[in-house]
């Protein structure tokens, strides 16, 4: 299976499972945390990706690292991810997952470039204008 299909399949599976179990927000947070850390630390990414360290040992190490920062539900979710996704593609899976969340909520990214910073009122008007154009 090529990389893009693997990434899409993983992101869609996570989206479906998280939605069915009502942990969409929690799943999003955990994916983003792991994605940011692994993108900033090559050693952490290698640790998550390697097959040389048993899953049980990885779980113990991650539990020790994150026990003061994450709650047990978040840790359990990380352990589940360890069992089921390829961490070599974590950043791409996270991006695709975040896109699926936005799509399911009817959200789109819009970038507006202006000569001057918009006031709150102007920004609100712009949002309403864009929303009316998209929904028509």
**Shape verdict:** elongated
Element-level helix/strand string:
HHHHHHH
- Count of DSSP helices? 7
* Unreliably modeled segments: none
* Termini Cα gap: 39 Å
Give me the secondary-structure category: mainly alpha
Biggest β-sheet strands, sense, barrel: none
Radius of gyration in whole Å, from Cα?
Answer: 19 Å
**DSSP, total strands:** 0
**How much β-strand is present in the residues?**
under 5%
Q: Could you report the average pLDDT, rounded to the nearest whole number?
A: 88
Instruction: Specify the helix fraction band.
Output: over 70%
List keywords for this structure.
mainly alpha; single chain; 0% strand; 136 residues
Tell me about this structure:
By secondary structure, the chain is mostly helical. It is 73% helix and 0% strand. It has helices spanning 3-20, 24-40, 42-49, 55-66, 72-84, 90-104, 120-135. α1 packs antiparallel against α2 and α4 runs antiparallel to α5. The longest helix has 18 residues, at 3-20. It is elongated, with a radius of gyration of 19 Å. The model has no long low-confidence stretch (mean pLDDT 88).
């Amino acid at each position: 299976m090529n990389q893009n299909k693997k990434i899409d399949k993983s992101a869609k599976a996570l989206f479906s499972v998280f939605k069915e179990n009502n942990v969409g927000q929690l799943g999003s947070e955990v994916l983003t945390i792991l994605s940011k850390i692994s993108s900033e630390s090559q050693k952490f990414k290698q640790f998550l990706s390697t097959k040389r360290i048993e899953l049980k040992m990885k779980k113990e190490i991650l539990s020790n690292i994150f026990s003061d920062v994450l709650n047990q539900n978040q840790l359990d979710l990380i352990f589940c991810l360890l069992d089921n996704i390829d961490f070599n593609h974590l950043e791409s899976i996270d991006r695709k997952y975040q896109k699926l969340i936005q799509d399911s909520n009817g959200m789109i990214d819009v970038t507006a470039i202006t000569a001057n910073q918009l006031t709150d009122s102007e920004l609100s008007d712009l949002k309403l204008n864009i929303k009316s154009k998209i929904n028509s």
